[in-house]
Design brief:
Distance between the termini: 10 Å
Largest sheet: 2 strands, antiparallel
Helix content: 40-55%
Oligomer: single chain
Number of helices: 9
CATH superfamily of the largest domain: EF-hand
CATH topology of the largest domain: Recoverin, domain 1
CATH architecture of the largest domain: Orthogonal Bundle
Strand order of the largest sheet: 1-2
Number of domains: 2
């Protein structure tokens, strides 16, 4: 497995974890990042009575902030950039409860009316309207282009997943690379 594949895997895992603190606890426990376990005969805890504080994060960690949906929704139509449109879409998906890879997969299948395993422009526009995002046609076109990374004229599941999931913040990337 390459480091890129490892990072991609944990980017998918990260998409369903709300807080950096929980992600850090999960990575630390899974990969023994704090060195608290010894591996002589299987995994054992060096000191079972000692509690670890996974809530504390290093002060140097950089966390990417995301604007709230209400801030983006108050901008007048046609004055929103691609990043703002994408954040509005992501917030709506979160509010609908589609979390994690399984939830996003189900959502993609719902959008894919013709079962082509791709979203054409009409299916994407219908999904935007079903979500009641109140985007102008030019904004929908712009958002569609953001998702269609390979410029094929349709959005496959991988493109959809990458668009909705987004990139991991630097703190999470650093943890994944430390585990790798």
């Amino acid at each position: 497995m390459t480091s890129e594949e490892f990072e991609e895997y944990y980017a998918n895992v990260s998409a369903s974890i709300d807080t950096d603190e929980y992600f850090a606890a999960m990575m630390t426990a899974a990969w023994n990042l704090d060195g608290s376990r010894v591996t002589a005969k299987g995994w054992t805890n060096k000191d079972a009575n000692q509690k670890k504080d996974f809530g504390a994060r290093p002060q140097t960690a950089q966390v990417r902030s995301t604007p709230a949906a209400s801030q983006n929704d108050t901008l007048p139509p046609m004055n929103r950039n691609d990043a703002q449109l994408l954040q509005i879409f992501r917030n709506k998906i979160k509010s609908r409860g589609a979390r994690g890879i399984m939830g996003l997969g189900r959502l993609f299948k719902i959008f894919d009316d013709d079962n082509s395993k791709n979203l054409n422009h009409l299916e994407f526009k219908k999904a935007i309207n079903d979500f009641r995002l109140n985007l102008a046609d030019k904004e929908i076109d712009s958002l569609y282009k953001v998702f269609d990374n390979d410029k094929s004229g349709s959005i496959d599941y991988e493109e959809f997943l990458r668009g909705v999931r987004g990139e991991m913040n630097e703190f999470r990337k650093a943890l994944a690379m430390k585990a790798f």
